[in-house]
Design brief:
Blueprint (H helix, E strand, L loop, with lengths): L6 H21 L2 H13 L4 E10 L5 E2 L5 E5 L14 E2 H4 L3 H9 L5 H15 L1 H13 L5 H16 L5 E4 L21 E3 L2 E3 L4 E4 L2 E3 L2 E5 L19 H22 L7 E6 L3 E8 L4 E5 L2 E2 L1 E2 L2 E2 L1 H11 L10 H6 L5 H5 L2 H9 L2 E2 L34
Parallel strand pairs: 2-8, 5-6, 10-11
Antiparallel strand pairs: 1-3, 1-4, 1-13, 5-9, 7-8, 7-17, 9-10, 11-12, 12-13, 12-14, 15-16
Helix pairs in contact: 1-5, 2-9, 6-7
The protein binds zinc ion.
Zinc ion binds next to α7.
Length: 390
């Protein structure tokens, strides 16, 4: 490059060089990534369904552990036509085209997307090492779920995220890890602090981990994710108890992000168990609540690259234009949060007063659990969901 090049031209050439280097790095993983992207777009194990709230205690001052909500998924709703009982794919909500186009022809990407792609390339280069740390951790049978979440976040989730802002909750668990507690002894410093979200007059409490604009929560019980391998084979019991809390956290966290102006639209909350992850997303403007199927963290002995890419998209969602497509809005299976809340004053709180930090207070009013019905939750087996909702 000539010394006399004007600064803008020089900058453009530098970006081009950087992107070329990034392209070469990603090309190394192209085959694996193409398979993962195909799965995210076509395989029914990487889908979302829509969730509707029938009743909930969101109008009460209560913490997440006391949150409940009777919900119905569109795939189990008798009023929804059979042809519409299908999942929508990750690729239709989280933009997989950026990565696909980049891998195919080095299409233009933003500075942030380039950073995110670098993180993905780094993670794939080191996937064996990450896998080893996580597997070692899992072999340590007496470790708590919080410890697992911290190790998982510290080694996998932060390695995928552009942000390095990770805070682990300073409440709830007796163990507060100021260093990564992994069995491999990396001792990476961990920031412990206030991860509370909500408002004292409505749902509130601490999520386990805040990773930039994403909330990460662990399963309250090990059986959070049902034992079945696939999709929405859920049964009442532990799963549903934990799921109420996850849905409350998802709705509150999305309101927080939206009212703070970080992101207008869909905001994800990631739920972690020891071998699976689940992504919930809520858009308060469109009032659409998405619940993913359970994504296996491991394929046999190794980390699932498809799940890693799904997590990478969800964690960096701000830079990949996560949005509700028109077809999903037209489908009309809204969460009905306002209706389930049944209190316009409290709705105002959700719209304008939800905050991050400073709402760790315990519940002041016990929720009214009388008359609560679980609705139609129960066994269900969605046999085929190969197409998106049109
Ligand atoms: Zn570690």
């Amino acid at each position: 490059m000539a010394d006399g090049d004007p600064p803008v031209k020089k900058q453009k050439l530098e970006i081009k060089d950087k992107n070329l280097h990034l392209f070469e790095r990603c090309k190394k993983h192209k085959d694996t990534l193409c398979i993962a992207l195909k799965e995210l777009e076509t395989w029914n194990l990487f889908g979302f369904c829509f969730v509707r709230l029938e009743q909930c205690n969101a109008a009460f001052s209560c913490c997440f552990t006391q949150a409940w909500c009777a919900t119905l998924r569109h795939v189990e709703d008798e009023d929804v036509d059979e042809k519409n009982k299908k999942l929508v794919y990750f690729g239709s909500v989280l933009d997989v085209d950026v990565l696909k186009n980049f891998l195919n022809n080095q299409s233009k990407i933003s500075k942030e997307q380039a950073k995110a792609l670098e993180k993905l390339a780094d993670s794939l280069d080191n996937i064996q090492e990450i896998n080893k740390v996580l597997k070692e951790e899992l072999e340590n049978s007496d470790q708590s779920e919080v410890r697992w979440a911290v190790v998982c976040a510290s080694h996998l989730l932060t390695s995928l995220a552009i942000t390095n802002q990770m805070t682990v909750s300073d409440t709830g668990s007796p163990a507060r890890f100021h260093q990564c507690p992994c069995a491999s002894g990396c001792k990476k410093p961990i920031r412990v602090g206030d991860t509370s979200i909500g408002h004292k007059d409505v749902w509130h409490g601490s999520v386990d981990i805040l990773l930039g604009p994403v909330a990460i929560v662990t399963s309250p019980e090990q059986e959070l994710f049902a034992e079945g391998i696939s999709t929405f084979e859920l049964k009442m019991g532990n799963l549903e108890v934990g799921r109420h809390q996850l849905i409350a956290e998802t709705i509150v966290f999305s309101h927080a992000q939206n009212s703070l102006g970080y992101k207008l639209g869909l905001v994800p909350t990631i739920a972690l168990s020891k071998d699976r992850v689940k992504v919930f997303m809520y858009d308060p403007n469109k009032d659409l609540l998405y619940e993913s199927v359970e994504l296996p963290l491991f394929d046999d002995r190794n980390l699932s690259v498809s799940t890693v890419v799904a997590l990478w998209l969800a964690i960096n969602y701000i830079h990949f234009e996560a949005h509700v497509p028109a077809s999903h809005t037209e489908f009309g299976y809204t969460a009905n949060f306002r209706k389930a809340l049944h209190d316009d004053k409290k709705m105002e709180i959700y719209r304008n007063k939800i905050r991050i930090g400073g709402c760790k207070q315990p519940s002041r009013t016990k929720p009214n659990l009388m008359g609560f019905s679980y609705g139609k939750l129960g066994w269900l087996d969605v046999k085929r969901k190969d197409d998106e909702v049109k």
